[in-house]
Amino acid sequence: MREDFLHFIWKHKKLPITNLVSTGGEAIEIVQVGTHNHLAGPDFFNAQIRIGSQLWAGNVEIHIKSSDWYAHNHEQDENYDTVILHVVWEDDATVHRKDNIPIPTLALKTYLSPKLIKAYEALFSKSGKRFINCEKQISGLDSFVLKNWLDRMYFERLEEKSTLILSLLKKSKNNWEEVLFVLLLKNFGLKINGDAFLSLAQSVDFTSVRKIGADTLQLESLLFGHAGLLDENNTDLYFRELKDEYQYVKRKFQCEDSNAVRPAFFKLRPPNFPTIRLSQFSNLYAGQNNLFRRLIDATSIEELYGIFSVSASEYWDTHYTFAKESKKSKKKLTKKFIDLLIINTILPLKFCHAQYHGKEIESNLIPIIIGIKKEDNSIIETFNNLKISAHNAMESQSLLQLYTNYCLKNKCLQCAVGNSLLKGND
Questions:
Q1: Which InterPro entries does the annotation name (predicted)?
Q2: What's the pLDDT at 99?
Q3: 108 with 180, same domain?
Q4: Is 330 found in the same domain as 240?
Q5: pLDDT of residue 424
Q6: How confident is the model at residue 384 (pLDDT cuts 50, 70, 90)?
Q7: What per-residue confidence (pLDDT) applies to 119?
Q8: Nearest alpha carbon to residue 246 among 230, 222, 277, 211
Q9: Same domain flag for 101 and 190
Q10: Is 163 exposed, middle or buried (0-12, 13-18, 19+ CB in 10 A)?
Q11: Are residues 64 and 89 in contact, defined by beta-carbon separation less than 8 angstroms?
């Protein structure tokens, strides 16, 4: 038995609201269950409970066992002086307030529907290896309930990603262009080099980036140099040109020595090598006038694809690393890579920027995100096997949020899917 299940029972009135009897023999009628409190203090505020002939207004505390009151030291906490009813699964101790007056206790064990308990046990059963707790029931869920919940999951995911954006905004003293630079460079590194590229972005003085302007060579040299990719000796002509340019840029802008983490090449396909990604990033920035404003104002997926239609510098047409030549190919940002940048950088930034300025943005974001193909990974594939299919990136992002933040954490009772399944079994 879990305490959050008892919260669910109380909140959704999954027990009779009349004809209840306290462990002390007093009649109990639930007039109002109160407001669920997710912070410190009693579990439900401002409840109204008729106990005997007296109507009480106050708070409700819920535990598995009555003795948990003392295990949690509530008898020493004045926040619990206003508790009018102690709701438990099992009554194993008499609970008193600080003034030694016993608190009425309601034991739920004898009042719950066997069907509801069976559904709860099936949902949280430990037997067998399951992808998600409700994998046998989810395909039968009302499609309206599931769609609404998944829509909410997408915007919850955007809100989570806003945490980093707001942190960067504070650090940059409300410089949105600098936030874009840092966040975009981080996501150019993908999973393996994301942290290294983030440390690189934070080691670069953004005012220097602004002053460099449209000079791709200078920006490329600054990023390569600060990333530690120009440290070794190399006779390659382009390497020497970048290294000389880096020394010039450092002197010109009085750049401090970098403390960035050196990016990795290991386990990466050549198109994702940091050399290629940093050159593409440099060409994106040097080739755009006021990139932040263009991205914020973009209202279609086609417009965003146009902005990100850039390639690495010409040298990289025949290289993936310095000095070692390869078959000639233009190192252009692929549509799949651009999609990832839009999903993980541009849309969260547009969402956070609009919220920060008190503007409505959802209607502008949805046409863009549903215009992107769904992500292909084992999680999305397994949901598809359960007949919960994603048809676009909004739906795949929603399923990833559901799986990561609810399914993996067994938060079924905070999930509309779990709630709906249990509500149908009272």
A1: DUF2851
A2: 78
A3: no
A4: yes
A5: 63
A6: very high
A7: 87
A8: 222
A9: no
A10: exposed
A11: yes
192 and 73 share a domain? Answer: no
- 285 pLDDT higher than 60: yes
Whether 132 is covered by a domain: the verdict is no
Cα 272 to Cα 201: distance, rounded to the nearest angstrom: 18
Token digits of residue 351: 């969402």
Q: Which two tokens stand for residue 313?
A: 């510098």
Structure token pair of residue 341: 């940048």
- 89-115 average pLDDT score: 89
> What is the domain extent for residue 51?
3-112
Backbone angles phi, psi at 61, to 5 degrees: -115, 140
Find out whether 389 and 383 touch, Cβ atoms under 8 Å: yes
Residues 186 and 329 in one domain: yes
Q: Are residues 75 and 211 in the same domain?
A: no
Identify the domain boundary among 92, 112, 132. 112
**Six-digit token string for 195:** 């942290």
**Residue 284 lies inside a defined structural domain of this protein:** yes
The last residue of a domain, from among 342, 369, 403: 342
Query: For the chain, what is the domain count?
Result: 2
Please name the residue that has the structure tokens 């029931």.
137
Task: Report if residue 404 sits inside a domain.
Answer: no
Residue 425 has pLDDT above 60, yes or no: no
3-state secondary structure the chain: CCHHHHHHHHHCCCCCCCCEECCCCCEEEEEECCEECCCCCCCEEEEEEEECCEEEEEEEEEEEECCHHHHCCHHHCHHHCCEEEEEEEECCCCCECCCCCECCEEECCCCCCHHHHHHHHHHCCCCCCCCCCCCCCHHHCCHHHHHHHHHHHHHHHHHHHHHHHHHHHHHCCCCHHHHHHHHHHHHHCHHHHHHHHHHHHHHCCHHHHHHHCCCHHHHHHHHHHHCCCCCCCCCCHHHHHHHHHHHHHHHHHCCCCCCCCCCCCCCCCHHHCHHHHHHHHHHHHHCCCCHHHHHHHCCCHHHHHHHCCCECCHHHHHECCCCCECCCCCCECCHHHHHHHHHHHHHHHHHHHHHHCCCCCHHHHHHHHCCCCCCCCHHHHHHHHCCCCCCCHHHHHHHHHHHHHHHCCCCHHHCHHHHHHHHCCC
